[in-house]
Amino acid sequence: MIWEWQRVLIGRALMTSPELLILDEPVSPLDVSVQAQILNLLERLRNRYGLSMLFISHDLSVVKNVCDRVAVMYMGKFCEIAPSERLYRSPAHPYTRALLSAIPKLNPCSGHSSQKGFILEEIVSSFPLESGCRFRDRCPNGADLCQKKEPEMTEIIKGHWAACHFLTIDEQE
Ligand code: SF4
Predict the structure, then answer these.
(1) How far is the CA of 165 from the centre of ligand 1 (A)?
(2) Do 102 and 119 contact (CB within 8 A), yes or no?
(3) Pocket perturbation via mutation, ligand 1, pick of 72, 79, 136 by most ligand atoms within 8 A of CB
(4) Domain closes at, from 50, 67, 84
(5) pLDDT at 1
(6) Who lines ligand 1 at CB under 6 A?
(7) Which of 79, 141, 147, 167 best tests ligand 1's pocket when mutated (most atoms within 8 Å of CB)?
(8) What is the pLDDT of residue 95?
(9) At residue 83, does pLDDT exceed 90?
(10) What is the pLDDT of residue 119?
(11) Is there a single domain that holds both residue 83 and residue 125?
(12) Residues 6+ apart with CB under 8 A from 80
């Protein structure tokens, strides 16, 4: 039923011959097999019509498979932007690392999934913060500077940007 509903919405959107499709959590309420059907449909539409797509999602494993380029937001502001393959392999911002470490990984031997790294907790900070980095109350690397000054976006290598006073690159396996 939901699959039909999604298909009708996408079909209607295409009737206006758009150049850009904005998809806000298009597969999050769906089970995995229906997700795969929707994502295959979007891929076919992208190739057929040469569409650009802005794909908004909290599901990082889906984002990895769909997007060429990923922008991570924290409390309404971009904290890291990079080509997808680069961001998942070498995240630079502590928030991106926390998100990636929270993706369950399937153990091929046991068949069970597992997570590593610290689990993200509820955001309890008041918003907006008066000064400093928005992630400072939850950041494992925070320092005095982070309380006082908001970090600006810095280009680490061509096409890979992050906003942190203490940028390091984390090469994932
Ligand atoms: S600027 Fe400071 S608090 Fe913000 S992400 Fe970087 S290290 Fe953490």
Answers:
(1) 6
(2) yes
(3) 136
(4) 67
(5) 54
(6) 94, 133, 135-136, 139, 141-142, 146, 151, 164-166
(7) 141
(8) 95
(9) yes
(10) 43
(11) yes
(12) 71, 72, 87, 91, 92, 93, 95, 96, 161, 162, 163
Q: Please, which pLDDT band fits residue 41 given cuts at 50, 70 and 90?
A: confident
Distance from Cα 152 to the centre of ligand 1, integer Å: 11
- pTM of the predicted model, to two decimals? 0.80
Do residues 88 and 56 share a domain? no
Domain housing 23: 1-67
Average pLDDT over residues 67-78: 95
Handedness of CA 89, 140, 70, 3 (dihedral sign): positive
What six digits make up the tokens of 104? Answer: 């369950």
* Nearest in space to 170 (alpha carbons), one of 146, 141, 150: 141
- Please write the tens of the pLDDT for every residue from 110-168: 555 555 545 455 555 555 567 899 999 889 988 999 999 999 999 999 999 999 999 87
Atom of ligand 1 nearest to the CA of 145: 2
Report the separation in Å between the CA atom of 58 and the middle of ligand 1, taken as the mean of its atom positions.
Answer: 21
DSSP state letter for 150: P
Within this chain, do residues 40 and 88 fall inside the same structural domain, yes or no? Answer: no
Residues 58 and 8 in one domain: yes
Count of domains forming the chain:
2
